[in-house]
Amino acid sequence: MASLAEIRARLQAQETRQSGSNTGGDNAIFPHWNIQENESTTLRFLPDGDSSNTFFWAERQMIRLPFQGIKGQVDSKPTTVQVPCMEMWEPAGSCPILAEVRPWFKDSSLEDMGRKYWKKRSYIFQGFVRENPLTEDSTPENPIRRFIMGPQLFNIIKASLMDPEMEELPTDSTAGLDFRVTKTTKGGYADYSTSKWARKESALSEEEQSAINTHGLFNLKDFLPKKPSEAELNIIKQMFEESVDGKPYDTEKYGAYYRPAGVSAPQGTTSSTKTATSSPAPAVTQPVAETTTETVAPAQQPVSEPVQTEPAPAKPVESTSAKRADDILAMIRDRQQK
User: What is the radius of gyration, based on Cα positions, of the chain?
Assistant: First the structure.
């Protein structure tokens, strides 16, 4: 498990790079966006089950393709298909949509269209729900839940991690911190700017540690879309072109690859692609604010997941690593020189 110093070093490296450059199977996702105005829910984040991940989250980058309807359906309503952006993976690949869209921002008449097709970011975490104001129809046997955070909440988490007054990782089993998500409204939209970390540290309870030992931690990368092959990138490009041209979604052509929520693949077709579907937005969403350098998605829109995979048992949460930030920075500089 990465130390707080490692996380800070990696975040700082990402910040430097950015500033220098222009539906799932279960109910493990906790829908914190459904809490009422002025309500709060308390979460305790856990590390990624994949020890190679420096962070305790996984970043997801998706592009929404709007279509006028579905081909062949009478009175079909507008629909949206989500497709993965190649810049989600390291090293970042070339995204055929962004390659087309980036020049649009140089033309004021195309800026709005460019924002429509720009990538949207969301972040996958996992942990325990320690205070739940929601009345859920059912809760999973495994109390380790997944959380889909939009950029507003993520930026609060990120800023706190960079604060030198935070001395331990918030995911530490004995000296970690709870995160309190508070929902208010601003301008008619959901606002989470008053969310914050608890002031006092707390240890995982015996029940929580037992749940980790029993169920293991999720490997967060398992809930990212499958990386498209060259053939699938060609499909994504064709879908993008037809979306821009105002054509309806063609199930026969694209249904075996990517399709809207509620639409089945054509009979007799098979595909290894994990279908990226569009999820219904919550009742109140955050306004979209996108630029060519940093984009945000509707703040708490639930993001559809790839097919659920059974998490492998993981070791109990351990204390922070002894590696120093200088070592990580040296490693990053070494990679940049190669």
Answer: 21
Amino acid identity for residue 95 in this structure: C
Q: What is the pLDDT of residues 53-62, one digit of tens each?
A: 999 999 999 9
Q: What is the largest CA-CA distance in the chain?
A: 63
Q: What domains, with CATH codes, occur in the chain?
A: 4-325 (3.90.198.10)
Structure tokens at 269: 């077709």
* Residue 157 parent element (H or E): helix 151-161
List, in order, residues 6 or more apart from 218 with CB less than 8 Å away. 28, 48, 49, 126, 144, 146, 311
- With left for phi above 0 and alpha for psi between -120 and 50, is residue 224 left, alpha or beta? beta
SS3 at position 161: helix
pLDDT band at 39 (very low <50, low <70, confident <90, very high): very high
The whole-angstrom separation of Cα 315 and Cα 337 is: 35
